[in-house]
Structures are given as structure tokens and as C-alpha cells.
């Protein structure tokens, strides 16, 4: 796989080629990755996978017309053909008054902070196999586990580079290590399955295989023998693993492109008190070893810590160049970039800050409610805010977690859920979007 400096050289080369073919401006983004994983099942090796990919994308501007194109051919002749085709395509494209490169004065400059995103050591296939076996063994050792879907250990490394025709050229490398297990509990028609996984930038930051395996086993066992629940309105408590989705819906609806298309349920609520005044949501792109950490966005702007919700109110939309121009707003450093195409919106290490109550205190006054550990279905409409998902979890009786329940639907609107949301104090920074346990009163629950 190419190194960061090689990725940047390819980007610069492609931008120069586009300018020589008649582009007024251009940017190029290069992404290369390698990954390896080992899977075991019932103590035996099941699968070994290794993949490598390299891709470079070019975006060119001819006046107010633009086009995007990408390739995995890094040869000199292939890049020259790519640049020529991109310029030809741009000349045929309709004019877009909002597209363009970020203003030169807003580009990231200065020293790049060290975010420690790459572990120097790369595990061998044998090491991965041993970790996968340990993880599965721990899951299978949990009383009540009757079968296994397997354990997996993996490693990946990614290189990213971005260069523009007005002088920006930066890149970085990152890596990740992953452990997971999925097992079955119960017998016959009452079999239940669940999983646990963890990803970290450095191996040293991963929990032990025993901890991950034990979590997978315990999650599966506690689902055995589910009943249902009477329909009605009641308090619903979301496990952090599923609660992060509620925050994800908020972030998606705050996206500048969604606002520009008038396709967000948050339109008209810019100044409203969406949450309780104690609620804060923060973004931390410069967190050391963060899974979504980055120093610059997909258009070359510096990333910095930002409060997205303060005192229960949004602090503004999340923009890239095109949406900022369309909405008449400033740039927020949230452009996201894949291997090709125009920039979208991407966020970095978003956290809903914890509350004061423990989980036990959060549920202690609930006479009859639902603790949700799993959600399924696509019943979330980000244009209207309507929310309806299938759910599994545990009954809450007299302030205590009780028997498992399944085949349930929970429903409300996202705005109503935001207003009722109360966080516990059990926040852990594990993923790219993290929340503590969340309580939402008066949700509609459909069961028996």
C-alpha cells in the first residue's frame, strides 16, 4: 500500500494534469487501505481475509461547471486520461452557482497536531487467530450459550491525502484494531443471538478478549425466553449501543445539504429549545486516538472542537462549501470526502454529555417500562421527524430490569423524544458517536 507522501504526490500530479487540460480549479483526494481479519467458529479456523485498495478521485471546475471522476489506475497514462475526461465532462455539465473550492484564506495551515491515530505494530495472522479464539472461547463459556456464530479479530490501516489547485496539500495515516464475537443462547424455537465488538486505534486500548466474549455471551443469554408487553405509553430507556442512533438522527437533520434541500424536520426549529436546558452535545475532532479524529475536513478546512447543542438549543447547521453558499452561511469545517464525488458532511467524535443520575437512579421510579437493547427496521423519517422502530429488550418493573421482551414497536416523533430525553451518567467513549443510557418518557409502545 502507498504511503501518505506518495498519496499526496499522486493528488498533486492529478491536479496539475487537470489544470494543464483546461480546468480553472481542481482538487484530488486519494484513499488507500489494507485490512486483515481472521474468523474462527467453534474453536476452528473458519476464514482469513486480506484486502488492499487504492483509489484516487478528481474534481474539476471549468467556470461554474464541475465534474467528478475517480479511478484505481495510478499509472501516469491512466491519470492523464482521467484528467482529460474530467475536464471534458465539466464543460458539458450545467452551471452550479454554489460549487467551488474552499476560500484560500480558510484553509488549514501550520503544524499538524499529533493525534496518535496509527499503532506502529501490525499483528500477524497467528496473533489475530489467537485473539479471535480467546474472544469466542470466553463467549462460549458463559452459562446458557449453546452455539456460536464465531469470533473475529482484525486490523486495518488507511492513508488519506487531499490536494487542491490553490495550494492545500495534506495527508495522514490511521489504523484500527477490532475484536468481536457473536453467539447463540437457548434451545429449539427459543434460540437467541447477540454480539459484542470493540474497535480502537491502538491494540493497547482494546478491552481483553475475555471481556468482549463475556459481554457477547451475557447479552445473548439475557434475551432467552422473551415475552411481549402491553401496548400503551410508557417510559423507554435506551441502552447506549442503540441510543447513539437518536443522536445520529439529530446530526443528519443538522446537515447543511439537507437544510438547503428543505429535507429536514429541524427546519423552522433553529431557535427552539429542542432539549432540556442541561443537554449539551459536543464534537471533538482533535481527540487523541479518536475513531473519527481528523485535523482537516474534506475541503481542507481546519477541524476544531465545537458545541453542537448548548443549553438544549442547536448552535447552527453543519456546512460544506456548497451548502454554505446556498444558505448564505459560514463554513463549519464539516465537509466529508470519500474516494470520489463532491464533498458531503461528516462529523468527528460526537458526544452527548452525561447527566447526574446513575442508571439505577434513572430507572428507579419506573413502575412499568421498557429497556431497549436492540432496534431494527427503517422507520425513521428525517423529513417529518416521525419515528417508529422494532425493538427488543427487557421489561422494567418497579424500578428494576426484569424479563426479556421482543416483537415490540416503539414510536414517537424525534422532536418529542428530544424534549423528553434524560441522560444517565454512564458515558463511555467507545465509538464515533457516543451517548450514555437515555430515558425518554411517554413513548408509544405496541406489543400484545
UniProtKB/TrEMBL annotation:
Belongs to the peptidase U62 family. GO terms for molecular function: metallopeptidase activity. Pfam families: PmbA_TldD_1st, PmbA_TldD_2nd, PmbA_TldD_3rd. GO terms for cellular component: cytosol. Residues 231-447 form the Metalloprotease TldD/E C-terminal domain. It comes from Erythrobacter mangrovi. This is TldD/PmbA family protein. GO terms for biological process: proteolysis. Residues 26-90 form the Metalloprotease TldD/E N-terminal domain. It comes from the Bacteria. Residues 121-223 form the Metalloprotease TldD/E central domain. InterPro entries: Metalloprtase-TldD/E_C (IPR045569), Metalloprtase-TldD/E_cen_dom (IPR045570), Metalloprtase-TldD/E_N (IPR002510), PmbA (IPR047657), TldD/PmbA_N (IPR035068), TldD/PmbA_sf (IPR036059). PANTHER family: METALLOPROTEASE PMBA.
Amino acid at each position: 500500500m502507498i504511503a501518505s507522501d506518495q498519496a499526496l504526490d499522486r493528488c498533486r500530479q492529478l491536479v496539475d494534469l487537470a489544470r494543464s487540460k483546461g480546468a480553472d480549479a481542481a482538487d484530488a483526494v486519494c484513499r488507500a487501505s489494507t485490512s486483515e481479519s481472521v474468523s474462527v467458529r467453534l474453536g476452528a479456523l473458519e476464514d482469513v481475509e486480506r484486502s488492499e485498495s487504492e483509489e484516487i478521485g478528481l474534481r474539476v471546475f471549468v467556470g461554474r461547471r464541475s465534474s467528478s471522476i475517480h479511478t484505481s489506475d495510478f499509472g501516469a497514462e491512466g491519470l492523464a486520461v482521467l484528467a482529460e475526461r474530467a475536464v471534458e465532462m465539466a464543460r458539458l455539465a450545467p452551471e452550479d452557482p454554489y460549487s467551488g473550492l474552499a476560500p484560500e484564506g480558510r484553509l488549514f495551515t501550520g503544524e499538524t497536531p499529533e493525534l496518535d491515530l496509527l499503532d506502529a505494530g501490525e499483528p500477524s495472522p497467528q496473533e489475530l487467530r489467537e485473539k479471535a479464539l480467546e474472544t469466542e472461547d470466553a463467549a462460549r463459556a458463559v452459562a446458557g450459550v449453546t452455539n456460536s456464530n464465531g469470533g473475529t479479530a482484525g486490523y486495518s490501516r488507511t492513508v488519506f491525502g487531499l490536494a487542491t489547485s490553490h495550494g492545500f496539500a495534506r495527508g495522514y495515516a490511521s489504523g484500527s484494531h477490532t475484536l468481536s464475537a457473536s453467539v447463540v443462547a437457548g434451545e429449539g424455537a427459543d434460540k437467541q443471538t447477540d454480539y459484542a465488538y470493540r474497535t480502537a486505534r491502538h491494540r493497547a486500548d482494546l478491552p481483553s478478549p475475555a471481556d468482549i466474549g463475556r459481554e457477547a455471551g451475557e447479552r445473548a443469554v439475557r434475551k432467552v425466553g422473551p415475552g411481549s408487553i402491553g401496548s400503551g405509553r410508557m417510559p423507554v430507556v435506551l441502552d447506549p449501543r442503540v441510543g447513539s442512533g437518536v443522536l445520529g438522527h439529530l446530526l443528519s437533520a443538522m446537515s447543511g445539504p439537507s437544510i438547503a434541500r428543505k429535507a429536514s424536520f429541524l427546519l423552522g426549529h433553529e431557535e427552539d429549545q429542542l432539549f432540556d436546558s442541561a443537554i449539551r452535545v459536543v464534537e471533538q475532532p482533535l481527540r487523541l486516538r479518536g475513531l473519527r479524529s481528523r485535523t482537516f475536513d474534506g475541503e481542507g478546512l481546519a477541524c476544531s472542537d465545537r458545541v453542537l447543542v448548548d443549553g438544549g438549543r442547536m448552535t447552527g447547521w453543519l456546512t460544506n462549501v456548497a451548502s454554505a453558499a446556498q444558505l448564505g452561511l459560514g463554513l463549519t469545517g464539516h465537509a466529508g470526502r470519500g474516494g470520489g464525488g463532491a464533498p458531503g458532511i461528516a462529523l468527528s467524535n460526537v458526544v452527548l454529555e452525561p447527566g447526574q443520575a446513575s442508571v439505577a437512579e434513572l430507572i428507579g421510579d419506573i413502575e412499568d417500562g421498557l429497556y431497549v437493547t436492540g432496534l431494527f427496521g427503517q422507520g425513521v423519517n428525517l423529513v417529518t421527524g416521525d419515528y417508529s422502530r422494532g425493538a427488543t429488550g427487557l421489561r422494567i418493573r418497579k424500578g428494576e430490569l426484569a424479563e426479556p421482551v421482543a416483537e415490540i414497536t416503539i414510536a414517537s416523533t424525534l422532536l418529542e423524544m428530544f424534549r423528553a430525553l434524560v441522560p444517565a451518567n454512564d458515558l463511555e467513549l467507545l465509538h464515533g458517536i457516543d451517548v450514555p443510557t437515555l430515558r425518554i418518557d411517554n413513548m408509544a409502545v405496541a406489543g400484545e
